[in-house]
Design goal:
The complex is a heterodimer of chains A (253) and B (150). By secondary structure, chain A is an alpha+beta fold. Chain A has seven helices and eleven strands. Chain A is elongated. Chain B is elongated. The chains are: A alpha+beta (253), B mainly alpha (150).
Chain lengths: 253, 150
């Protein structure tokens, strides 16, 4: 390169600096664009999702019971992979959320029903996040998001540190009292991989629960998502759940 | 030349340390770790291999044709057999030896009430009764055949 005079040098240097600055701005933007706009199932053969229709749930607790049976979850009333909560909204303002034994044994009769404005059941399970805080927080790589979109726990590799249990904003994890490893809903991975429905979906009497393949635009779940109004739990957490709730009230957390 | 000797010593120490690190890493980290991501890929197959207890709806139809037909015509058509009868894969494997759950007539009112007892929390359209007042003492199945209730 020929010798530059001062003006040329300054011009060249400022243009280069500007280009570099723009580049640092653009690449995170592109990454963010990809993060928010591209569906996580793009290019995947299979990607599991789940939907719950709150208007169909009758709170019978069959799902919670079947889940415990199928997955050998301890029977004590504080270990659940899925459970059903009853929401009661009252006037004057008041919100009660209860889930005695996960809803397995039913719910006590409603007290002073004349003050109740709204009441309904909300089944809870793993939210199948696309940015799962539990996976992020695991120090040993024992919990992970599988290729087909299910968050799983490697029981042989988990050290039982409980970080993931604290990290999950939905409280779906617990420490297994016998195995001393973190445990959670696997969407009945052993069943769905064999073409069966998850145990909770199988026994739900009203079809309030539905699982399906999001990578297939013609699957019943994809069509349901295309045609219904749905919400996810705690969207402000940035977890991007693949568990969606139909007909959900804003009080549901 | 004397200074060069120092460099050789440091290089030897580094070589041994790196070799030891790689050797220990090879022993400690499981073979399939990192194949699919930051986890043990074999774990996926281990979870897939866990035992199944609920046989699934389609397993019942071949033998229990009558009940399946009844159920598909009535309001219980959205339900799977195992919803009331419990896990039945062992029954499918040994139909004569293992029998799935069947509610006893004495408990049937409690059993049906788990879904059909009146509650404000249930969807309004869902059929509900007040068990305490509704045909007291009579088993539900006397009037409502369970596979095809009316």
């Amino acid at each position: 390169m020929k010798n530059l005079n001062r003006r040329q040098f300054l011009k060249f240097a400022s243009v280069t600096a500007l280009a570099a600055a723009l580049q640092t701005l653009v690449s995170p933007l592109a990454a963010a664009e990809k993060f928010f706009r591209e569906p996580p199932w793009k290019g995947k053969k299979k990607y599991w999702g789940f939907a719950v229709d709150i208007d169909k749930c009758i709170g019978c607790g069959r799902c919670a019971k079947a889940c415990k049976t199928e997955n050998d979850v301890p029977k004590e009333p504080f270990f659940f992979r899925t459970w059903v909560e009853r929401y009661i909204l009252r006037r004057p303002a008041g919100l009660e959320v209860t889930s005695p034994n996960g809803g397995i044994d039913g719910y006590p009769a409603l007290t002073s029903p004349e003050t109740i404005t709204k009441t309904f059941f909300v089944p809870k399970l793993c939210n199948l996040c696309d940015s799962p805080p539990c996976v992020q927080s695991c120090p040993v790589g024992a919990t992970f998001k599988s290729e087909d979109g299910v968050v799983l726990v490697d029981r042989k590799w988990c050290v039982g540190c409980r970080y993931c249990i604290q990290a999950c904003p939905y409280g779906v994890r617990y420490l297994h009292p016998v195995l001393h490893v973190a445990d959670k809903c696997t969407l009945c991975y052993h069943r769905i991989s064999r073409g069966l429905r998850p145990a909770c979906v199988e026994v739900c009497p009203t079809g309030a629960r539905m699982h399906g393949d999001l990578s297939d635009p013609n699957s019943p779940l994809s069509k349901l998502r295309d045609t219904s109004h749905y919400q996810t739990l705690k969207p402000h957490m940035g977890t991007r759940p693949n568990l969606v709730y139909l007909n959900m009230d804003q009080e549901v957390r | 030349m004397k200074d060069f000797q120092h460099l050789l010593h440091v290089a030897a120490v580094f070589t041994v340390a790196i070799a030891a690190f790689l050797a220990i890493r090879h022993i400690v980290v499981p073979a399939s770790f990192g194949r699919l991501g930051h986890y043990r890929a074999d774990a996926v197959d281990e979870i897939k291999a866990l035992p199944v207890l609920y046989a699934g709806e389609r397993s019942c139809a071949p033998c229990h044709q009558e009940q399946t037909k009844d159920k598909s015509a009535g309001p219980h058509r959205t339900m799977a057999c195992e919803s009331c009868h419990g896990p039945a894969l062992t029954h499918e494997a040994k139909p004569k030896a293992v029998h799935p759950f069947r509610p006893k007539e004495a408990d049937i009112r409690t059993f049906c009430s788990a879904c059909h007892e009146r509650s404000l929390s249930r969807p309004r359209k869902f059929p509900q009764i007040e068990e305490r007042k509704h045909q007291t003492g009579a088993p539900c199945i006397m009037c409502h055949p369970p596979h095809r209730p009316k």
